[in-house]
Design goal:
Layout (H helix, E strand, L loop, with lengths): L1 H15 L2 H10 L13 H8 L1 H20 L19 H18 L12 H11 L1 H18 L2 H21 L8 H18 L1 H9 L14
Helix pairs in contact: 1-4, 1-5, 2-4, 3-4, 4-5, 4-6, 5-6, 6-7, 7-8, 8-9
Length: 222
Amino acid sequence: MFLLAIIVILSYLAGSIPSSIIVSKAARGIDIREHGSGNAGGTNVMRVLGWKYGLLVIFMDALKGAVAVVLIARLFYGPLPFENVSPFDDFTLVQIIAGISAVIGHIWTIFAGFKGGKGIATALGMLLMLITVEMLIAVGVFILVVTISRYVSLGSLIAAVSIPISLILRENVFHVDISGYNTILPFVIFITLLVIFTHRKNLVRLFNGTESRLSFKKKDKS
């Protein structure tokens, strides 16, 4: 139990690294939480500082989820401190626990007053390591929706919802044998609901027509 607790803590701390705050201070000497929507995430960085810095933050945030799953989870060895009733092997289950811890760290970061981003990019990095096909579909959906609507929040929400839908369709319609389907589906639904929860204010603004659209215009460096 002690080793698993260490993995959870390290994954949470990795997820808590405030990429957007670090990048915004290094690039412009500002705290991104005091500009734009006030959210410490890649989307707000993209709006305030431009798409290049926004993509850098998104990459860094996704890397946090991937590191938790690929590297930190590997610290685990020996049997689990509880009975593993899932169809996953012990290590895969530890990866899922580490990934969730990183997402929680990003949303409620200890390094920024427990107020971080919405967790999309970190969840993306985690899930890319676990369900690659579904995540590539989600990335395609995100790019398509954002390109057409220029609403990053809308793209994030639809992409998140597309993941469990893709799983269900591939397993039940196209009869693809997805390993651990009965366990990964509830897990993905939980992540999707978490994403919707963290985007609740964006949903209100989308319905009210006040949500900010993404601009690819170069930002003023002054």
